[in-house]
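User: Teach me something about this protein's shape.
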Amino acid sequence: MACVVSWNCRGFRSKVCHIKDLIYEVHPVCIALQETYLKPADIAKIKRYSLVRKDNENESGRASGGVALLVSHDTPSSVITLHTNLEAVAVRVMFSNLVTICTLYLPPSTSVDERDLNRLVDELPTPFIILGDFNGHSPLWGSKNTNLRGRQIEEFVNTHSLCLLNNGEDTYFHQRSRTFHLWISHYARRLLLLTLTLELELTCVTVTISQFFWTV
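Assistant: First, the predicted structure itself:
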């Protein structure tokens, strides 16, 4: 069984201990992280895992957003060079077959060009899985309402014949109500048959981990 995890960590350096706990508990082949809040000069390491990252800074020079993939040294993998303005990184990982894993973060306040999303898909070798926090709302993944980003993601999924790896629950975690929600995930129909299991774990009072596991 191969385990893949996706988590909007909201700060890599402040969550290293939780990432290590997660690795100890479930031994994931790959961890997709969003909102890492890293600057290019920041050192980020996890023992026995390779780290592929794309950092982002706002206009004031403060770390904002950012994505990363942690890949186990026990699993053969190779980095895919992406030519995109989007906050995304990707690797090819050897499960029983080669599968492309991509992590993507779409900030809520930033306009996303549909052409950038289309070009991203064109750059990903199939079969692929895109994991991320897209900040879109739609009944397709459990939201009561649909926003502009949600409609954009719906069109993106339909255009490229993608499938949602989602059990129908919301994809948002509300801090005040402390309700859990899933992040959106997609995989190409050419991908192997996958089994999706959701585990939600409250690691402490202020930190929530949302996890996706696939058996490949």
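Now, about its shape. The first helix runs from residue 16 to 26. The CA atoms of residues 105 and 133 lie 5 Å apart. If you'd like, I can walk through any region in more detail.
User: That's plenty for now, thanks!
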